[in-house]
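User: Predict the structure for this protein chain, please.
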Amino acid sequence: MIDGSLIDTDVHHSWRSEADVWAYIPRQWRELATGELGGSLRVTAPYRFSYRRRPAGVRLEAYPLNGDKPGSDYNLLREQVLDRHHVERALLTFDTALNNAVPNPYFAQAVVRAINDWNVDQWLTNPDERLCSVVLIPGQLPEEAAAEIRRIGRHPRVVGALLGWNALSKPLGHPLYHPIYEAAAEMGLPLILHTAAGEHAWGPAQFNAGGLPGSYFEMDNLFTHPTFHHLSSLIVHGAFEKFPTLRLLCVECGLSWVPWLLWNLDDHYQVLRRESIWLKRWPSEYFHEHVRFATQPLELSPRPEQLTEALESMAGLEDLLCYSSDYPHWDADDPRYVAGRLPRSWHRKVFYDNARQLFRWPSRAARPVPAGMSERIAESTNQ
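Assistant: Here is the predicted structure, written as structure tokens:
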């Protein structure tokens, strides 16, 4: 059971209207993208920075009564996440802003700067100190991305750097991305890789092997594919050797495949290490030291113990997991569900300690759990 506060590493917040962000975008781009000077829809379409989610994309109860977007209302987020689950810190990771794989790199830079400024002004000025967030990275221009990390990363409530899309269509170990990693390491900010690097958002990068999926059914089932490649690339190309303080949090990419990937990396390293002469340790050692995973989504094994057996096949995995809700999405996980899927001996690490260590937060005195919550979690765990 959970006996104290918890940390949620993936809460998607949003703007009420795109107009909230357009106000931060330079007039040059705003006029072109919104058609304020008579631009046609054909011209403006590539510059849209949100996309239409499928109808089941969010929970119905997450919609504010005034009809605003889910995740845009602080009071509702406080009620449904912060207070309900006794959250000590919630990492705000954007929602529609994750899908900015726009083709024009200069416009992408302007959009990202605007979103980051909006986020600081509208969310990080909130007196609720439980809220922290990330700097969104314009991946199209790595040098500009590094500059943005250094600009926004100085804010005391910005605690990570979010790479929301793979705009260069290259695996993330490629040296082109190194300026991003250098800046993140310099600022002491973990790099956050959300659902791989946004390949699922119909950006320029290949989504999966064998061609594009033809349905959401296929796409949801294949979310993990790009993450296999990105993690392999980061390790094999020595990113963690070059940037020894770089830390990585993988969000929304599943867990059960991790032992398989590490077994294969270590096995192939024995015969192919001459291709990675910069590596000084086993690939799995770099993984354990530098990589962490958010829990959502936990694979739905027929019986909870099957998932536990799969995860326990890789020693030390309980030290790498950080609880995440994925609020307000339709498949969001509350802590009672996660507690029931993982061994009770893992709970303190998964719900609190691992995230605290990742983001280098001081440990706070545990506050009492709201009345009835421990019992509800214990009941869920025993089912």
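The chain has one domain: 6-382.
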